Amino acid sequence: MDCRIFFFADGGTEPTRASMPQPKVKLVVTGDDFGYCPRRNHGIVECFQTGGVSNVSLLVNATSALDAAELAKIHLIPIGLHANLSEGAPVSQNLKGSTLLNEDGFFHGKTGFRKVLSSGQLNMYEVEQELRAQVKRFCELVGHLPYHMDGHQHVHVLPEVREVFAQVLADFGIRYTRIPVEPGLHACPLIPPHLHEFYIQVQKDALSSVEVFRRHGIRWPDVYLGLTTMGQNMSIDNIKQALGYALGARCLTNTLTTPLTGTQTDEIAAANRPVTVELMVHPGYPSHPQEGGCGQGPDDFSLSEDRQHELEILTDPSLLAYYKQESIQLCAFRDL
């Protein structure tokens, strides 16, 4: 977003964000899995144009990644990398027989990746090789480095992987990542028990990754949201409730997850600035069977009607009016 002052012939200036009232919340609404299939791409672009998302995350090994990159250029969509180590085929051409891959040459899957990692059989050099290949592929597709980089299915906060992930971010100068620690997650009654157990483990891993990313100079928003508002659990009321949790949990979240500011003056300034929040979303239209994915076809998550449900909620005029009413400013990672 452009914050320059433009002078007009009459000597006046155009109002800028610096002269406008300070928002209470700077909200990054990230549409994940951009590139997964043509219908996902279409829905995400529609959502961006309507004001429902402000930022996207690209799967560079997905079948429609090139199309997604072109759409991001055409529509000036802020874009980052959704690094993928768990679904589909790798980007690197040097991973034949890799511990990252099963006997069919594909990644092990969300659960399988974690099993191989916990068994101690995952080669971290191969992880690093694939992550670097995906960053380079992103640059080839988009024309610049990612504004942010996180892990598909939250693999970036897992033990050992987070060390490699943070080093790759630092080496490329990518400043922002995602720390999936969500206020209100423990008490959320909407999530099925098996998913709730997985999300709680994701949160534990995320908390353990904080010092690793901090040590490498990587940053992230004050608050993360998205696990309690995914799919059919997304509603305008649930988004409002999640944002309420975010505001209420600011102090705790700053202490646990955000990089330390150092001086007392810095701390006072931080207390007076807007809360920064990332809301992870997955809008789109359901994939056609056999069209999309990352080399193995679309999964149930992408085939479901949940994608379109999220799209409809995120673009609902009453939600967009709520943002304006509550001084919630949508922005992208590059604007933070």
**Poorly predicted residue ranges:** 1-18, 251-255, 259-268
Radius of gyration: 20 Å
Instruction: Give the strand content.
Output: 5-15%
What is the number of beta strands?
Answer: 7
- Overall morphology: globular
| Distance, first to last CA | 10 Å
Number of helix segments?
12
- Main β-sheet: number of strands, strand sense, barrel status? 7 strands, parallel
Average pLDDT over all residues: 88
Give the assembly state of these chains: single chain
- Total count of domains: 1
Structural class: alpha/beta
The named CATH superfamily? Glycoside hydrolase/deacetylase
CATH topology annotation: TIM Barrel
Name given to the CATH architecture: Alpha-Beta Barrel
Helix and strand succession? EHEHEHHEHHEHHHEHHHE
Cofactor: Mg(2+)
Protein name: Carbohydrate deacetylase
Family: Belongs to the YdjC deacetylase family.
Function: Probably catalyzes the deacetylation of acetylated carbohydrates an important step in the degradation of oligosaccharides.
Structure report:
The chain starts with 24 loop residues before the first strand and ends in a 5-residue tail after the last strand. The protein is of the alpha/beta class and 336 residues long. The longest helix is centred in the middle third of the chain and has 23 residues, at 193-215. Helices cover 41% and strands 11% of the residues. Strands 1, 2, 3, 4, 5, 6 and 7 form a 7-stranded parallel β-sheet that branches. The protein has a single domain (27-335), classed as TIM Barrel.
